[in-house]
Amino acid sequence: MNLSFFIASRYFRSKKKRNFINILSRIAMVGVAVGTMALVIVLSVFNGLEDLIRGLYASFDAELKIEPVRGKSFEVDDQWLGQIREVEGVQTLTEVIEDNALLRYRKDQMVVTLKGVTDNFLDEERFNKGYFIGDLTLGTQNQPAAIIGRGVGYFLGIDLDNEFEKLRVYYPKAPRAGTIDPRQMYNSDIIRPASFFSVEKKFDDEYIIVPMAFARDLLNYQNKRTSLEINVADNYRIGQVKEKLKALLGEDFSVKDADEQHAGLLRAIKIEKLFVFITLTFILAVASFNIFFSLSMLAIEKKKDIAVLLAMGATNRLIRSIFIKQGAIIAFSGAIIGLLLGFVFCWLQDTYGLISLGVASSVVENYPVKIIWTDFLWTSISVVVITFLAAYRPAAIAAKVKTVEHL
């Protein structure tokens, strides 16, 4: 066994008559354990929230989205769409027309985002997460139906069971010169409300999903589309298919994966997670001040022992190593306990849902958690750095003990 580690471990386990230093060491160890456990739990919660948001968005958005770089819409034809479908790895292609429109139900009205989609939109496991009530259908060509965001439905007071009340949708158009008839200034049509969905507030409060033919005729888009949504086959990586589509479409179109479609929100979560990590690491550093105090007092108490070691030929480097390893034993003992407790708590939360969100309208009942091994790695690195900083000064003081004065 390494000599410095052997002496440090004996100091840590020894029972002194004046056991105040031992008590202080145990307090330091508990402080590190609690700080490490809190760090692991909080980072795992952020991972769970990020994963939850990705899952909720994935139930509404496609894995890849094609949009024009310039302008709002673009022309499509069967030949061009066929080339995209033939790209290796493309499983389904959904055509999308998306624009703002005025929605009216009875006497209430609001501006919504109208999203017209082709029939295969519902064949891609849409709305498999979150909240959904009603019939998962877009109706027929003669009787189209709409899937409505829950926030829109609540605001307008839409009753799905009332078959006589329909939604009326209005879209402005350029009137003919000299006309004074207000009916010439907009297109309108009616559609049956079929169901409500809820995946995320942004979508819930703004969107209604309608058949492509309904949106195309109402908005007068003809062969124009605002985007194309693509789902990737199971045996292909999204990144590979994305690069193939970019090569095919050129610089006039952007191809975004799920993260890029909501880059701002995910970036905000990562930044918040980073600042929380820095804050909790600082709290962990404050808790580690007990290591500094316990090692400083130990250096004062063990001056005679240090003098004896120096007289026997020990070097200053060995003395410093003893106290640094003493601090490492205290910190690493607490860190290991904290990592284990944090892992167990996160596992219990993920398996049994110990702590509830307490929000009745939430799409999940309990706080989501996700354990990532890199969080344990960075937490361990933080403990190593903090331990070295806390133990270096007492170790340097101990190495300056003069042999003659303490023998």
Automatic annotation (TrEMBL):
Domain ABC3 transporter permease C-terminal: 278-400
Residue stretches making up the MacB-like periplasmic core domain: 27-152
Membrane-topology descriptor: Multi-pass membrane protein
Coiled coil: none
Cellular localization per UniProt: Cell membrane
One Pfam family, short name: FtsX
Swiss-Prot/TrEMBL keywords: Cell membrane, Membrane, Transmembrane, Transmembrane helix
Positions of transmembrane segments: 20-46, 274-300, 327-348, 371-392
Family matches, as InterPro entries: ABC3_permease_C (IPR003838), Lipoprotein-release_system (IPR051447), MacB_PCD (IPR025857)
Major site of localization recorded for this protein: membrane
Family as reported in the entry's similarity comment: Belongs to the ABC-4 integral membrane protein family. LolC/E subfamily.
Protein name as catalogued: FtsX-like permease family protein
Species of provenance: Echinicola jeungdonensis
Taxonomic lineage from the root: Bacteria, Pseudomonadati, Bacteroidota, Cytophagia, Cytophagales
